[in-house]
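Entry for iron/sulfur cluster complex. Fields follow.
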Amino acid sequence: MEEMMKKCRLCPRKCGADRTKSAGYCGAGDKVTAAKAALHQWEEPCISYKNGAGTVFFSGCSLHCCFCQNNQISNELYGRELTSEELGDVFLRLADRGADNIELVTPTHFVPQIIKALDLVKHRLELPVVYNTGGYELTETIRMLKGYVDIYLPDIKYFSPEVSMKYSKAPDYFERASEAVLEMISQAGELRYNEEGGLLSGTIIRHLVLPGNRHDSMKVMEWIAENTSSDKVLVSIMNQYTPFDFIPEGFPELRRRVTKMEYNSVVRYASELGINGFTQEKSSASDKYVPDFDLEL
Ligand code: SF4
């Protein structure tokens, strides 16, 4: 692990930072940093089905989207440091509190530390592990997680390189995300549920519809329909885009909510393509669904 931290190439930025000395593009040093661990009720119904997902929100992110709904932790890096031993204890405490699973949110830049934490506690942890990611991943890094993750919950945010460049400075976003998602699907296999309707394995692809970008959303849906199968993949089309005050100048289209017409047209198109999954009520577009990052770990 130390070697990986000295010249980090864990994500598609491949920025090569020596994280033992200073943070990489994602903002992460060599210690895990997280802002909250709690039972989280607002994931898809098969992820938060009884007591809630046992969610750990990691700080930092390799994407830095200009509209990020978790800006305080992804861009402002709010959080506190944990050793892998402490992270393993956080997983066990969530399990003791009745978590439906262990959900890792934006974990990419801490994959080696998370693997170490899971190795330390796996003999005492019987819950599925959920990997919740913005989708900007290297396939090689996802391969390291084989045998550790049961459920993948990746975004596919953008199709066009122009759009992903504009909002996340990542023109290769779709190329990297689509390759990585295929690896995730091959690892997680078929959708399997327990008797309470909780997901035990499989992949849920999320897509947040952005204002003014429904045609890009439709391209994402076309790729999903052509490249995945409904026995392994569900699709969650999200309507919770919230235009926060921190959105920088230069993105006037992001200063409003998604219209009913925009959202419904993407959902209708996905349905015509035979895609199965989840939709979201308009009422989910509110900052009340942004967790209170209180360093409770
Ligand atoms: S995970 Fe962070 S430090 Fe590592 S390559 Fe990506 S941006 Fe750089």
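NOTE: Residues 8-11, 13-15, 17, 19, 24-26, 28, 62, 109 surround iron/sulfur cluster (CB under 6 Å).
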